[in-house]
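Dear colleagues,

As part of the handover before I leave the project, I'm documenting each prediction I ran so the next person doesn't have to rerun anything. This entry is a single chain, and its sequence is reproduced below.
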Amino acid sequence: TRRTLGATPSEAAAAMTGLAHAVTIERVAPRAQVADAYTPLLAEHHRFRVRAGEADEAEEEGPSGAEARVPRFHLPTGFRPDRTMDPTAYPKLVDFLHRCAELTEGHALSWHEEEWPVAQMWRLAGALWGQEQRTVVVPRLEAGAAALPGAGAAPLPVYDHARERQDCRNGLHRPSDRRAALLSRWLAHCVRGRAQEAPAPVAGAAPAFLEIFGSLSEGRVPDAVVSAISAGEVRLAGMLACHGASSAGTRGPGGVGAGDEETQSAVLAAEQLAKWLAEQHDDFVDKGLQLVYSLLTDDLQHLDPDQVGHLESGVLSPEDCRSTAAALDWQRGLGLRLWFEQAPGESLQFPFQQYTDAFRTCKAAPPLPAYAARHWHEAPEFSASPRHLCVLYRLLELYCLGEEDCRPVDVVVQALMPQAATADPLDYRHAWQLLTLLEAVNFYERLPEDTAAMVIDSFASQLIAVGLWTWSVYAYAHLRDPRLRSHAIRSTVLRHGPDATPAEMDFLQDLGVPVAWLHEARAYARGHGFRTKEFVAALRDAADTSTNPEEAADLRRLAEEAFLVQWLPTHYVGGREAALLDFLAADPVTPYGHTLVKYRELRRATDAARVDTTPPRLEAIERTLWELKDELDVGRPGNSCDTYVAGQIDFQEKAEFCRGDMLTYVLKLHFKLLALREDAAHDFGDLADAPMREHERIKSLSVASWALVRAMQG
């Protein structure tokens, strides 16, 4: 309804064929509200932009580099192709991520916000490829390096491939610990308040234990401790408080008992569950308490309906496990594996793969986009292959695959789909931002040129649809192909630039858009408005400001054609031909222009008070007359100006009258010259032999006869 409200059938058809984008903003929405949905992030993107260097341009352009007219822009490239950090660009990239997170802070509080996925995308990007926000100077960096984010910490690599575990007690941490902390904080921020909206994980559980489980599923262990104390569960509160500290030991990817050292709280929880089962007290223990203890074992097989029956401490029933899975959205399901199964120092791949396997086997909620996930609990359906997955899940998948040096282009393509973040298939806002961000991260294989161009063109069309056409030029400036980039920007400027304000012109010139294109845009608009004089003047301004000689010549030719087609005939009929012919005093560029200049010079020579009648001069005049007769008899050929200037029958009639009048003058002067030379042998019989249609021949003969009569009369 929002997309089609107020739309005509033609607009709806255009949207279905991809010719119209972003018919997503309500037509009744004020322009300021529309701009607020786009411009803050675009302005920040523009502020951090970097112009592609000459080496990059040459590499991308190849043999067509000389044809590039508008420079290419991109975000600061934080990492080199060998995955080492660029000490100059990386701080700028991190600062950009934090600024975007600050700008979208208001939309990141609740996943019921329409812009929530984009707001969380920036926070997740900072957790995956950025680092802490506070800045300090790290002297160990290369000379000339800027201040790097992080409270006294070294720059944070994206991936940590170190094998040995460093001593945390002496203040030494692996970089993966910092990265894990960033991801944990991001995930906890995402899911805050979700437990209150979700149904109860198990039926008949005490509210106090459900509150504790809800806090744990949101990564809020301190709140869970407070809730346990309030409920009088002192022992449980102590186990919860010790859980984080006791998890400093290492364990392998099988949960408790798979590593070298088992965590004390996990061992106690498993022993308690096994004791309840052995003594057959499980029926007398609250289901909520059983759920919390099962979680504290740090082995989520206790929540797996297919595995819980094979565990000595598996106290929950398969039905309870399924109802718990149905009560957890995909981010809380991932969070449980991150907070209760991942050992310190382990890669994000382990919990992510555990969750992916569970969702692919229909044991966990699928990672649906927020607009679908927030309604999933109303009718839970465990689908192993949903049509669209959340952009946040795709970014996590991209990060995990990239750790193995994979080139997951298909994952990037899926992350750029509009439906990964919004229900609107024509909204490419997050896609364009993410495309430019991944290029700046420089860790993953580039998308095919046609795919990247499709995203950029779709977003630019969306900006045009909401009235932000100057920002569409900036979006097009990120195209890699120089010919495609120049063509797209020039087409946009020619269509929307005729009435550009001074501020818009300054913005475009700051992007490197040639001033000649703005003059050309103004010219074409004037031409379609029958303002031929302004059309010609604007084209000449465009030609004078163009830096491309071939383009300047084409513009001058078009301006001259427009002058000859409409401006000259109209004023010639009005008796002002002498002043208008001065327009052609400069070197003409069209054949018809050369003919009129030749005619202008002949008029000046023969209308003088005293005409030079020496034989050489008369021979030169005669040669000119013969040339003019042949050229004027053919008439004005068709030209490209007819495409740009609105034509009228009246203009065509005046142009024909103008040509006939000039031809009459030439023939009259020719007969006078023959009479002066007393050369009766010459006549104008060659007109009868001209290869033309019969009616054209008759017209030319009538013009010649009339000229002869006037010459004989004086």
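The radius of gyration is 39 Å. The first helix runs from residue 9 to 16.

All the best with the project,
I.
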